[in-house]
Amino acid sequence: MKISVVGGGIGGLTAALSLLRQGFDVDVYEQAIELKEVGAGVQVSANGTRVLFSLGLEEDIMSIASQAQGKEIRLWNTGQSWKLFDLGPLSIERYGFPYITIHRNDLHQTLAAGVRRIKPDAIKLSKKCVGITQDDKGATITFADGTTATSDIVVGADGVHSKIRETLFGRDDPKFTGIVAWRGVIPVERLPERMLRPVGTNWIGPGGHVIQYLLRGGKLMNYVSVVERADWQVESWSVAGTVEECLADYEGWHEDIHTMIKAIDVPYKWALMLRPPMDDWTRGRVTLLGDACHPTLPFLAQGAVMAIEDGFVLARALAENNGNYEAAFAGYEAARVERTGKIVRGAEGNLSRFHNAALKDPKLAEDYVNAEWQEDKVKQRYEWLFTYDATSVPVVAGTRSPEAAA
């Protein structure tokens, strides 16, 4: 079976590596002229590292990642902190795999190297998909340079602005959330020692929140923040803002927030859009994965992990259904649609939780955090995410996902 993957991001490369390891012939078509990810960090919980380790990447990943020892909640103005949950050795003990934070480009290059070890010429650059057709013999992708590629099946892993999705299902209709996000990566020598604990921190406040965690074994600090404002609606990761604009969005916030913002060379901003999760990802010989079919708000730290799970489960479905793509796509969707939809809705639910107006009043804030992040509630929100096993979830057509069964 010849398989084309459109999109060389984290999801597309995970799918390609997983498919190659199952013995399929795979080519990846990426529109960029060079293979690189944006400068930002990503969190990969145990359900994601389970997949990466199963793909033979454990040593490569752990040599460049950071391991968070836990996560905490901090109050936007006072800095008061609450433990969210322990990680580090506890993640391995409880889930069998670590919770890591890793630079997106490091993860991206590791996946690309894994693909090239099996098939050196698998990744084709400067191949922007502009359309796709299919018939009873195969599916043909048309590229902007006028060339085409035909294969038995196609996987659309081409992100939130997916041309494959648009061709199969029509244009989507994203809704602006009224939220703008900021990101930056900071060399740790620019920050005071007290800020370099190996803990992922969620600063929460009225109308915004900030996330920080270490990368590259503690050499870099990843900064991501969001703020409620309606004057910027560009959904792009490559638009540069200014330090002064970012500081203005967090006026009155804790000095640690301002210290991080001032240490960023160029902060980038993008508008957060909301799309309802799709119930159907497949048309004939073509299916979708990752942000192409379930883009999510970044409030559960599962966006990249969902794409990693998708790619691995899709490859298993094709292998375990003996290459019968119709049965495999059905099994793949049955294993993934319910779970990913629940994650998208859960991330949306965290929006009001992180930005609640009660956080503005010091008298109300402590009671609010104690109630919303009570231990049983935290377990209810996260345990089902971390215990998911993409290496064993049923993928034969007619089976149901654990979320659907529950």
TrEMBL record:
Pfam families per the UniProt record, alphabetical: FAD_binding_3
GO molecular function, one term: FAD binding
Entries under InterPro entries matching the protein: FAD-bd, FAD-dep_Monooxygenase_BioMet, FAD/NAD-bd_sf
Boundaries of every FAD-binding domain copy: 3-344
Top-rank taxon: Bacteria
Keywords annotated in UniProt: Monooxygenase, Oxidoreductase
PANTHER family, A to Z: MONOOXYGENASE (PTHR13789), PUTATIVE (AFU_ORTHOLOGUE AFUA_6G14510)-RELATED (PTHR13789:SF309)
Protein name: Salicylate 1-monooxygenase
